[in-house]
Write a structure and sequence with these properties.
alpha+beta; binds zinc ion; two-stranded antiparallel ribbon; elongated
């Protein structure tokens, strides 16, 4: 089966994006349905689920006696609802800490 690059119109934002032959082949092999949204919209949708938001800068955070520097989490309590959560950075008492749910709610309420 031969694939050719084709343009698909995003069903979300209406922009034309390229769906390359290689991608088509990949999707076909995996049995995925061809995408109907552009990369931006798919990404936006994915981020909405609550991925890793703020990335802590790794400046001088070596002193913790942990193991691998990345993937380390600290226990914290959500400033808003008090739920226990873990954060990928050392909680700063001077700054609010939010659990995933509250963080997502803040984000969505801010965009609209
Ligand atoms: Zn789009
Ligand atoms: Zn919360």
């Amino acid at each position: 089966m031969l694939y050719t690059d084709r343009n698909i119109t995003c069903s979300d934002c209406g922009v034309d994006f390229m769906f390359s032959a290689a991608e088509q082949e990949f999707f076909e092999q995996k049995g995925f349905r061809f995408p109907r949204r552009c990369k931006e919209c798919r990404k936006a949708k994915k981020d909405g689920g609550g991925g890793g938001g703020a990335r802590a800068e790794g400046a001088g955070s070596r002193m913790g006696g942990g193991g691998a520097g990345t993937g380390e989490t600290w226990p914290a309590n959500c400033t808003q609802c008090g739920a226990e959560t873990t954060v990928p950075f050392k909680p700063d008492p001077a700054r609010p800490t939010f659990c995933r749910k509250c963080y997502g709610e803040r984000k969505t309420s801010r965009t609209r």
